[in-house]
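#lab-general

N.A. 3:47 PM
ok so I finally got the sequence cleaned up, no stray characters, all 351 residues accounted for. can someone with queue access submit it? mine expired

B.Y. 3:52 PM
send it over

N.A. 3:53 PM
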Amino acid sequence: MASLLVSLLATPAFAACSVRTTTAVDLGTYSPAAVRQTVVPYRPASSGFGCSAAILSLLSSDYARATVSAATPLKLTSTTDATRSVTYTLAADSAGANPISPGTAFVFKGPSVNLLGLLGDASDVKVYVRPTSTDPVPPGIYKGDFKITWAWQFCSLLGVNLLGAEICLVNDTSASASNTTATISITLTLTANPVQMVIATTTVWDPQSNTANPRATPGSRQRTTVTVSNPDIATLDANSLRIVLPTPAKGVVALDGDKTPANAVVTTSDGTPASNLALTYTASNSSSDDVEFSNNVNFDLVTEPWTYQPAPGNAAAQAAITAIRFRPRGTMAAGSSFSVSMPYSVSLLGP
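B.Y. 4:20 PM
back already:
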């Protein structure tokens, strides 16, 4: 009798469960690439189901069962173009390990309930949403909704397990609920998150001081570095990055190097994390490396053929270069940066 009393006291009373009106869910702002690559994290959304007190213990017969309506596709539609949409998936946990499929009942029961976050916080049970479209989608605002019908049974008063037999004085079930269906509205904003670029120029050599505190005087050498950063959680498409560097005023491309001990021409460096990019430079008149030149004063980023091949060591050919295009190879990693630099000779009158 004493052990029975302890068991009764150890199992708290459980108040009624219900399905309530939900508030709209904003999944946040991401790039179209992040959605296409399925790297947007699962976001919590109120399922509409909750109980007025935390579930601290369960009998094996207790459950909460969620069925997402299959009548409406899981997609968000553009607010400006009804032909554009983003699909999404649902899960019972933030890692997506327990997917919820439309038309198929998902049962929160027994030990799984605790793993999925129902135990200890039953006031507002969550489902998790992630946009997963693999087709390209344009920037914009996308909206949609889905319905969940709930069925449940919980022991609401003095649930005990006595010698393997479960005893419950009062059950709370969905059969007595006035409403068992919730509608969850979702908004997703897609906006471009383009590569960022920073250009910096440093004097590395002059005829008087060499490399010791060099100054930007006629005939000195400067190195211009372009650093590109990918701020997105998505990678760039493979081999899609193009870096165009116009020749600066009063500068001439120095194909013979920067006059430092290394006397390098094109140099590259990686940030942290690694960019996974690589760039090769063989010679200014090579058609097989990743560095191209233009001698067109009015070059166009789209139509420029980039076929100019200045002869190494030819001063006139170097002075005719108006822009350089770098084509790094690889898939630029999310959150990474990559730098490429080129030496220039400071001229008196400019090119």
